TrEMBL record:
GO terms for biological process: rRNA 5'-end processing. Its EC number is 3.1.-.-. It is found in: Cytoplasm. This is Putative pre-16S rRNA nuclease. Its main location: cytoplasm. One of its GO terms (molecular function) is nuclease activity. Pfam families: RuvX (PF03652).
Length: 138
């Protein structure tokens, strides 16, 4: 079994999370400058067995696509060319940033630490991955 990798895509930074090899636990991996994302993913997928990539699907409250979906679609085309052998799934990512921020508060992080946007992106990717794992149990 390979890992599942999740991406919380942003125009500046992208949060990345990954499962263990048994696909049970979702953990934050890192935050990458989006300009370096494809290179990072190519390197990571050559070193680790990745079975699937999950990318957040940003939606508005009325279920329409968010403005950032335009950038994500361009990225998905580049990803398919760069890593054609790994399938990609999408997961609704509404509220993940707010949930990430709340989890930082709940875990007792100081105010200065909660301003770390890279950490919020990484936690958001973890929440996206956890949501994917939970919805695909059966």
């Amino acid at each position: 079994m390979g890992r599942i990798l999740a991406i919380d895509y942003g125009t500046k930074r992208t949060g990345i999370a990954v499962t263990d090899e048994m696909q049970i636990i979702a953990s934050g991996l890192t935050t990458v400058d989006t300009k370096e994302l494809l290179e990072f993913l190519k390197n990571y997928t050559t070193k680790e067995k990745v079975e699937k990539i999950v990318v957040g699907l940003p939606k508005q409250m009325d279920n329409t696509a968010s403005e950032s979906e335009v950038y994500i679609q361009k990225f998905l085309i580049q990803l398919a060319k760069a890593i054609p052998n790994i399938p990609v799934d999408r997961v609704d990512e509404r509220f993940t940033s707010k949930m990430a921020f709340q989890s930082m508060i709940d875990s007792g992080l100081k105010k200065k630490q909660r301003k770390n946007k890279a950490l919020i992106d990484e936690i958001s990717a973890t929440l996206i991955l956890q949501s994917y794992l939970s919805s695909n149990l059966f």
